[in-house]
Design a protein that fits this description.
The complex is a heterodimer of chains A (484) and B (199). Chain A is mainly α and 484 residues long. Chain A has helices spanning 3-24, 27-53, 67-93, 104-121, 128-146, 152-180, 193-196, 203-221, 229-236, 239-268, 270-292, 298-319, 322-344, 346-352, 364-367, 369-383, 389-403, 407-433, 446-469, 474-482; strands at 58-59, 64-65. Chain A is globular, with a radius of gyration of 21 Å. Classes of the chains: A mainly alpha (484), B mainly alpha (199). Chains A and B meet through helix 5, helix 6, helix 8 and helix 9 of A and helix 5, helix 6 and helix 7 of B.
Chain lengths: 484, 199
Amino acid sequence: MTDVQALALAAVAVPALSAPALALAPARAALAAARGAAALTAAAAAALAALALAGRSSRGDWLVVDEPAGLLVAVIAGVGLASVLASPPYLATLGSSLVAGRRRARAYLALLFAFWAVLLAVPLAGNLGAAWLLVEATTAVSAVLVGFSGKPRALEAGWKYLILTSLGLGVALLGIVLLAAGVPGGGLGGLSWDALARYGSGRETAVVAYLLLLAGLAAKIGWAPVHNWLPDAHSEAPPPVSALLSAALLPAVLLVAWRSEHALAPVVGAGTAGGVLVGFGLVSLAVAVPFLWRPLAWKRLLAYSSLEHMGVIALGLGFATPLALAGAAVHVAAHAVAKALGFYAATPLLEHEPRAAGHPVTGVARTEPALGAAMGISLGALAGLPPSPLFASEVLIVASGFRAGRPWAAGAATVLLALGFLGLLHALLETTVGKARRRNASPRGLRGVVALAAVSVVLLLALAAAAVWLPGADVVDSLAGAAS
Amino acid sequence: MTAWALVAAGLLVLVVRRGSLAVALVTGQTLLLAGIALDHAGGGDAAAAGALAARAVGLAALFLVLAARTREPRRVVARVAPLVRAGAAAALALALTWLVPTIGLESRSAERAVLALVAFGIATAATRRATLFQVLGIVLVENGLVLAALELPGASSPAIELGAALDLTLVALVAAVFHDRIFAEFGAGDSAALRTLRD
């Protein structure tokens, strides 16, 4: 076993083993143990990501460590660590839950670590069959977390998420079975990313299989028009879980879709393979933008912003030029930082203004300036307000669309992104400096959110600098070649 | 012949009234799939047969305990009449058969049965209001895909097949927890009550 493979095993095994250990740990020690396990997991994952991004790859039938996996592992590790650190204030404010009082915190932490472990394994899967199994496993674990509060709205959101994504993944599995019949050697075990490129049962069947696979995965990624669960699940889940769902789960499944697209492009045709991604991207943008103009509850607004950003990433992967891939890479990382901060801010926000669970909030910076600043940083970055790295990545992606010979798609994306920007800018102004209401003072978890906001600003500025440096860099060529 | 017995069981799940009867039908269907796996030569399929049989019995026990724990005060009536449900599901199955080219399974009837079961599962989840039936719809889809995996030419993969059985069991367990809580919260396992989150 190489050092890269050993680190990959450790990055998944530490949170996987921590989950049952936390469930059985003494109640007093659970939170401290969770922090320690989270630090250990993040360290192993960060080391793995550093090696992968430096070009130390490993490629087998069951495990793949390459630059795209490194990027996603880094994102999932960072968001996972922050979610564990942001959980105690959430648990302190939790009134009811699916689990009885004394075991509540331990059950929540055990589920969170189980979800984190499966999430870390998804980008490392070297086989489409294994990737499907892991994505399906994320559904089972995260659905419980979505409904964890046990409130009627959370139960509704969790149920919709479970049923719709399970059915979607069933459709994806039908596509996988079609592919399995045509790969050399046959069978579901032969579905390594390299073997997919040698599919030999004809283009027509491959196209149908690819469409079924992408349509099924789209239900999990939250691409329109199969996104119905997304606003509900992201708005009703505990805030640290919403952060993991939006910033880590969606791009992790998107990576599976991208690896499938790269592997099957020689069979179905690069134009068709990329065109499907561009189509999902444009439809997602078109569906998301009208909602960004409406006054929505904070977490629901962030959920529709996820739909918009998954659409942007799909466009980048569909355009598939080195410039577009550089943009998509920056977009994945910057979206994770900004979106996670927004969701973490929801815990003190809901204590400051309980009405915010179901209604839009205005003038938060007038009543709690630090909280308003954190929300403003998140929303400003998500809107693409310069110097947000999301502005730079969107420019890279749209420009590459024109270069890639898809001017209509790039033009439509430009218009939709401009409209989305205006909608979010309006929401940013209303949320921070709009009309203020009387609210509860000193919400719990605010200090932690302020610290995370400071870290986020540094990361966002670093990513903005990276967006300028990345086009033409070796790592982008590696990203482009990694899955092919 | 066996493939069409699986399809008939799927169609019945779509139209029957009683949840316990639907659970029995899905269990019988899964045990039939375990029989098909046993009938195939090779160690991989024997492992698949064992996993399928364990899943069939485990899920049947889970669903029956759940149905007993959450007896509906009134029957949860689907919005769509049984004949219309069956007609819509048959139309979806025919459309899938028309759209999806030859899959490459060992027989054409198995291919049609796979597509029919997927269509019936989706139709069950989409048209039945009772939460128990919606979960059974997912099991129907998975059973169709298990049939496809068993009828694939070439070597099978015990790791993938056992993993799929484990995944479905996990999803069913989580669905059971939700069904139980939805019943406690709303007084019925009725998905029509779950319509408050809208924009």
